[in-house]
Amino acid sequence: MNILEGKTALITGGSRGIGKAIAIAFAQVGANVAFSDLAYDEQAKALEAELKKTGVKARGYASDASSYMDSENLVNEVVAEFGSIDILVNNAGITRDTLMMRMSEEMWDDVIRVNLKSAFNLTKAAQKYMLKQRQGSIINMASVVGIGGNAGQANYAASKGGMIAFTKSVAQEIGARNIRVNAIAPGFIETEMTARLPEDVKNGWVERIPLKRAGHPEDVANMAIFLASDMSSYITGQVFTVCGGMNK
Ligand code: NAD
After folding, report:
1. Number of domains in the chain
2. Could you tell me if the CB of 112 is within 6 A of ligand 1?
3. Residue 36 and residue 74 in contact, taking contact as beta carbons nearer than 8 Å
4. Could you report the per-residue pLDDT of 171-190, keeping only the tens digit for each?
């Protein structure tokens, strides 16, 4: 079922993890896929080749999502090359975890800049085109800790809580132009971001998950397909948890 056929998607932080899984899933259901990451490296080139094998148009870009200029240039380049931007996935994100007592100003600023300001940058640049097209779907990658908080992640949780409030606000601004904005709040998903957590912490998370396993990036990608497609055409301003029932 090629439910995204004819649509162009841009995914930030797309070279690995959840972003990569979304890029592959979108291509498999017919979307042309542009993805960005800090570098256009071997990883990005390999993904670009993998996406092209499905028969869609695909290209990786080096672009820092936390930079306003980079983001504007990226969106302009994507539209020039692909002809439109129908789906934007604000996925780029980082962690700089520690207790407040030890958190430096830099750790706070970096996380807010990469996780939250990036969504402003890309949404601002993309909405210009989506407003003209009178259609679009924006998907913001939040987190369950943006809903429930988490000790040791005050910066990260604040950025993700901000992402949720941003989602709801922009949805109210541009809904009348048929542009939808939703957030996905993943729980504990196995990627490089979570690989560095100590084993006992990871086991502790799994214990508390009713489905008794960590999530796979593909679990998040399936929700992204739904939100990107016309199957969700009456859904905007919502937050969807993909967390095995954990509900932090
Ligand atoms: P990851 O670290 O595996 O991948 C993140 C990607 O973003 C990397 O390729 C990285 O290079 C890129 N990136 C970082 N800074 C960037 C920047 N300034 N500009 C462009 N790209 C940049 O992480 P992941 O687990 O795949 O996470 C993806 C998103 O999902 C993040 O927003 C993360 O906060 C969110 N999330 C992840 C989990 C989880 O358990 N893994 C849970 C909830 C939310």
Report:
1. 1
2. no
3. yes
4. 999 999 999 999 999 999 99
Could you tell me the two tokens for 211? 């489905």
The answer to whether the pTM exceeds 0.90 is yes
CATH code of the domain in which 130 resides = 3.40.50.720
203 inside domain: yes
Residue nearest to atom 41 of ligand 1 (CA): 189
- Name the residue at shortest CA distance from atom 1 of ligand 1: 193
Instruction: Decide: 189 and 216 in contact? Cβ < 8 Å.
Output: yes
The amino acid sitting at 45 is K
Query: Is 247 a domain residue?
Result: no
Question: 1, 159, 7: which is closest to 90 by C-alpha?
Answer: 159
Residue nearest to atom 16 of ligand 1 (CA): 92
pLDDT of residue 247: 75
- Say if 34 falls within a structural domain: yes
**Which residue range(s) make up the domain with 180?**
8-242
Mutate to test the pocket of ligand 1, among 155, 160, 193 (most ligand atoms within 8 A of CB): 193
- Domain assignment present for residue 214? The answer is yes
pLDDT tens readout for residues 201-242: 899 989 999 999 999 999 999 999 999 999 999 999 999 999
